[in-house]
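Researcher: Let's continue the batch. This sequence belongs to SLH domain-containing protein, and it's 57 residues. Same format as the previous ones, please.
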Amino acid sequence: MFWTVLARIDGETITGDNWKTLAQNWAVFSGISDGRNADGLITRAQAAAMLMRFAEA
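Model: Same format as before. Here are the structure tokens for SLH domain-containing protein:
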């Protein structure tokens, strides 16, 4: 879900039945995340790291 929020802030259209895969692919392509553990919880440190990468992109 975190990837989806960041992708939508970035202007991406993430909809449909495969929204999770679309957001995951966006995050990997954008260098925000490595895309692993899509169904897992994220830590505060992981969220902060992704936010920093997003802000720097």
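Researcher: Any comment?
Model: The chain has one domain: 2-56.
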